[in-house]
Amino acid sequence: MQPNPNPNPNPISARAALDRMTPYTPGKPIWEVQSEYGLDRIVKLASNENPLGPSPKALEAMRELLPELHRYPDDRARKLVGALSKHYRLPESHFIATNGGDEFIKLLSEAYLEKGDEVVLPSPTFSEYEFGAILMEAAIVKVPLREGFRYSVDDILEQVCERTKLVYLCSPNNPTGTYLPRTELTRLLDRLPRGVLLVIDAAYSHFASAADYTDGMDLIAAGYPVVVLHTFSKIYGLAGIRVGFAAASESIMEAILRVKEPFNVNALAQTAALAALGDKEHIEASRRLNEKGRRQLYEGLARLSIPYVESMSNFVLAEIGERAGVVYEELLKRGVIVRPGHGWGLDRWLRLSVGTEEENSFLLEQLYVISITKGILFKDM
Fold first, then answer.
1. Largest CA distance in the chain
2. CA-CA distance, 71 to 82, in Å (whole number)?
3. 381 pLDDT band (50/70/90 cuts)?
4. Do 75 and 263 contact (CB within 8 A), yes or no?
């Protein structure tokens, strides 16, 4: 047989929407930095992970399940959904478990967006909201946050029109740590036109300490057209097995279930999430550690004359200045992984996850060393 001189005579074109997509860029993994710089000790403060690790109850539950891994998981995660129903005092029909929060964003886009629809979202914020919109060929309308990265309900409402289908609100917001108070949230909902769905991403809600904060679950009970997105990746410490959930009215969930794949949440994830949900000791310990760690970072950054944004989350956004990229690379060389802000258009900023007291101290020490050895005076930037 003669070889084909043209092995690809009829190339298949991918969808044009893919040209608008930018792949998600996660924080550098520990092994990569170890390999690149030949380091033994690495402190990772880039991905907003729980420095206490997973819930101990979740670990034990997964160990007990290992002999049953030849069985398919429950396609609806019914035990987990039942526990969520009791925890939040909403009907089981109002919940769906997903393969992390990212999957739900994609499912919501597939269920509700059509070509020509518009999605309104703050800027900067979590990039996956854009991914879902672009996938369905919807238009993205960005609403810049105000000074201090504050939300403005009026600015959001100005961008809502007859083509608007979804409005995203990450509160506390990633990467800024700012939030929208409950009174403003209800004002937004009361003024949104019929046919517009508000999506509240409450992934970091457990870390919010403001008295006027709400994750939006009470608004579902009140009958508002709102979806609340949660994750087990943050305070529960289960980022590595990918499990989250969303809550909304039964009619909204019926639409989501039409596009959901079967067995989307694996058996270990379901079991771990169920156990972690009830591990109050781990949740409270994680919350206390985070509050203490935030104060530690605030005080350390202030000593270095580095401006920062007060956060309701488990990270702090710090304004390093025009040499933020240099500082990021220098931190890597010293075994500290943080998140550069350029992916959000924040070239002068670094996002610092809250770690243990020792990890936070190491980060602050290295920032001080860099300022001395590289002649970087943060207060002058």
1. 76
2. 21
3. very low
4. yes
For the chain, the domain total comes to 2
Give the pLDDT confidence of 256-266 residue by residue, as tens digits.
999 999 999 99
pTM of the model: 0.91
Closest CA to 319 of 349, 296, 289, 294: 349
Rounded Cα distance between 167 and 85, Å, is 25
- Bridge pairing between strands 315-319 and 308-309: antiparallel
CATH of residue 240's domain is 3.40.640.10
Residue 32, both tokens: 């990569």
> Which of 278, 296, 323 lies at the terminal end of a domain, its last residue?
278
Domain that holds residue 160: 56-278
Query: CB-based burial of residue 139 (10 Å sphere; 0-12 exposed, 13-18 middle, 19+ buried)?
Result: middle
Q: Are residues 160 and 302 in the same domain?
A: no
Report how far residue 129's alpha carbon sits from residue 170's, in angstroms, rounded to the nearest whole number: 10
